[in-house]
TrEMBL record:
The keyword Coiled coil applies. Residues 1-24 form the signal peptide. It comes from Paenibacillus typhae. Keywords: Coiled coil, Signal. Residues 240-267 form a coiled coil. This is Lipoprotein.
Length: 363
């Protein structure tokens, strides 16, 4: 069951991720607007941003059984829960501040506020005070210093923020977005929405709003296009000489993935899952609106998703409805950093953190 509906959900979210940067300055056709503006969005060198993801509904309809009490408690906490990220970014010199806030609701409502700072070679995460997890008072409120390069080496990954070629990343993104969008029919999946009808928040001045939509009637076609047409071409892009070293990609593994993807066995399994998709997934709503300002930048995105994931063998249905927004401002302007780069006594290293926890275990 997981394989059958998981591919569907992943495809929807992948499509959302690559559409998010898109729109264009003139009243172009929707597909042209998104394709041409993907390049423009990648020229943003500094900005303020605010993202919010809210779970409007999460329910599980299933036969009564063990674990119902725990499941009910979790669902109660997640109902109407939201996560927001406010941030400031500049590329040169590289510095990013992010403050993530997680609000859990229900009978055990709680809130977590986690500021983070990223530079070219360091990442700092403020240690929060967490209910039910007693942390030493000597470290609560301090910033844990992490070295992305060391973490990458420990995990066998060669790509770190300081080693990534920004220009190549932009080129790669452009190729992937253009290839993916090129496979989808404009009349079926894209349309312009009048800015005054798009529900834009106050202060967002948009010249054009483009909507990408997947419905229950075209979700099978959308998945078929992604798996059979787009993914093999995207794999070829990832295997280009100019990207392989940057991404530390094994060419043989890429070739193996593509071969498996296009094998008769994989196609047969995918076709079977697709034929039965109605039994496992219902798309009530999946819309992504992207608004641009007069300077061609995507200043606001709004995602609406309402799906039902079904498991007929277990007699279980999961209803999930969520909304997401992403807003940019002060694009390519001089930024003001509130937190700054943590220093001195405000910083605790991973070794010091481990020593603190080791001390706790002796009591």
């Amino acid at each position: 069951m997981i394989k059958r509906w998981g591919l569907s959900a992943a495809a929807l979210l992948l499509t959302a991720a690559v559409i998010l940067p898109g729109c264009a300055s003139k009243e172009e056709s929707p597909k042209e607007a998104i394709s041409s503006s993907a390049k423009e969005a990648l020229t943003m060198t500094s900005y303020e941003m605010k993202s919010v993801l809210t779970i409007n509904n999460l329910t599980i309809d299933a036969p009564a059984g063990a674990g119902d009490e725990t499941t009910g408690m979790v669902l109660n906490m997640l109902q109407n829960a939201d996560i927001s990220i406010n941030g400031v970014h500049q590329s040169d010199p590289m510095q990013t501040e992010l403050t993530m806030v997680l609000n859990l609701k229900g009978d055990m409502a709680m809130s977590f506020n986690i500021p983070m700072v990223l530079t070219t070679d360091k990442m700092y995460v403020k240690i929060p005070s967490i209910p039910f997890l007693p942390l030493p008072e000597t470290i609560v409120g301090k910033f844990l210093e992490l070295d992305p390069k060391e973490l990458a080496e420990q995990q066998g990954v060669g790509v770190t923020p300081g080693t990534v070629d920004t220009k190549k990343v932009q080129d790669l993104s452009n190729e992937v977005v253009s290839t993916l969008l090129g496979e989808y029919d404009e009349e079926t999946y894209f349309k312009n929405v009048k800015p005054e009808d798009a529900g834009l928040p106050e202060g967002v001045d948009a010249k054009q709003v483009v909507q990408f939509q997947v419905t229950n009637s075209n979700v099978k076609e959308a998945l078929t296009i992604l798996v059979n047409n787009a993914l093999p071409k995207i794999i070829d892009i990832l295997g280009k000489e100019e990207y392989k070293e940057m991404l530390q990609i094994d060419e043989a593994k890429l070739a193996d993935i593509k071969q498996q993807l296009q094998s008769g066995e994989a196609r047969a399994e995918f076709d079977k899952g697709l034929a039965d998709l109605d039994s496992y997934l219902t798309v009530n709503n999946f819309q992504l609106n992207t608004a641009i300002n007069k300077d061609d930048f995507p200043v606001y995105q709004n995602l609406l998703m309402d799906v039902v994931v079904k498991d007929p063998e277990q007699g279980q249905n999961i209803n999930l409805s969520l909304t997401g927004t992403n807003q940019y401002s002060k694009i390519n302007e001089k930024q003001t950093f509130v937190i700054g780069i943590p220093q001195g006594e405000d910083v605790v290293t991973m070794e010091e953190l481990q020593q603190q926890f080791g001390g706790m275990s002796t009591y």
